[in-house]
Amino acid sequence: MKKIITFLFSVTLLMSCVNMYAQNPFCEILGSPAASNTLKPTAKTMRYDAQKSYRSAHLGEGCNFKFLLESPFGIGWHSDEGIQITVDGVDYGIVTLPWGGGGYAEEIRKLPSGDVQCKWLGVFYYTYHCFEIYNSLDSMIFKSDKYLPDELFLIYQNECIECLPLTDFEGVYIAEEHQVNLNWIAPESTDLQGFDIFRNDEFIEHLPPSTVSFSDNTEELESGNYKYCVIPVYPIECDLDEECFEIKINVGIINYKDNITIYPNPATNLINISGDSVSKVKMYNNLGQLILIQHNTNEINVSELTNGIYILSIETSTGNTTQKKITINH
């Protein structure tokens, strides 16, 4: 009877393991778990060369790396085990399969251009750990096997150009000051080399990547239509939509005779707007950066703003826009 019970228990355990490994994405067991702890990958492995302390891979290009992680026995990896990633010596964290988190996980990491290095942390046993690493072209660049070295196991020269557009682009033309102010939020791309400014398709200035605003004096310009464009610059030509601001300049002619008055000036806590009906008010600082928008109001609270000179762009209910300079002095 005891032998029958033992046999049934062994069969149940074996069937459980068979079912588990049947769902295993890329590791399979040889024989029964009781007979062998040797695992082998179902795809061709990249064998570790004992003559080298790392493996070099130069496949494809891109920013996103995909990690397929597996615990063959379905329980995850210990907290001190995982893949530590650095790019040109900068730490980009650890990829791991949390203990108790299940037998399989996928993780995407965005890595910049540079020398990507992967190190294994903890003790590696192929019977407990499996993983594959893919580049953004979905080409496998590494697959773990039982010969994985203890530390540095992969060096990959990543060539990634990430073209991202600028956002929150705003432009304002202050006719009384003969000035165009542009501002934006710079894209979070490590490959950004700066911004080129164009006026009517004519290059006028290159700005560093940290720049978020630009001002141009229009006093010397002739009457006509002008289009200002800000173009992010990358090492390659990127297909990005242009961010442009268009104005019309009439030299010696005031386009709009407004009846708007702002007071007090200097202001301390409140700015009052009187005259034409106001539909929208935008406030810009002296760098041309938009800091406030309000609708359908004739009173602006500036008690939280720092002292300095600001520009109010006031749009009336008839669609006309005028600009007023205001000084805040608490």
Q: Gist?
A:
With 330 residues, this protein is mainly beta. The chain has one helix spanning 2-22, and strands at residues 27-29, 39-41, 56-57, 64-70, 82-87, 90-95, 104-110, 114-121, 130-134, 140-143, 152-158, 167-174, 179-185, 194-199, 202-207, 213-217, 224-233, 243-249, 261-263, 270-274, 278-284, 290-295, 299-301, 308-316, 321-328. The strands form 7 sheets. A 5-stranded mixed β-sheet has the order 3-11-8-5-6, with no helix packed on it.
Descriptors:
Lipoxygenase-1, elongated, Immunoglobulin-like, 25 strands, four-stranded antiparallel sheet, mainly beta, single chain, 330 residues, five-stranded mixed sheet
Describe what this molecule looks like in 3D.
- This protein is mainly beta and 330 residues long.
- It contains 1 helix and 25 strands.
- It has 3 domains: 39-158, Lipoxygenase-1 (Sandwich); 167-249, Immunoglobulin-like (Sandwich), CATH 2.60.40.10; 261-328, Immunoglobulin-like (Sandwich).
- The protein has a 5-stranded mixed beta sheet with strand order 3-11-8-5-6, with no helix packed on it. A 4-stranded antiparallel beta sheet has the order 7-4-9-10, with no helix packed on it. The protein has a 4-stranded antiparallel beta sheet with strand order 15-14-17-18, with no helix packed on it.
- The chain is elongated and about 80 Å long.
How are the elements arranged and paired?
Elements: H1 2-22, E1 27-29, E2 39-41, E3 56-57, E4 64-70, E5 82-87, E6 90-95, E7 104-110, E8 114-121, E9 130-134, E10 140-143, E11 152-158, E12 167-174, E13 179-185, E14 194-199, E15 202-207, E16 213-217, E17 224-233, E18 243-249, E19 261-263, E20 270-274, E21 278-284, E22 290-295, E23 299-301, E24 308-316, E25 321-328
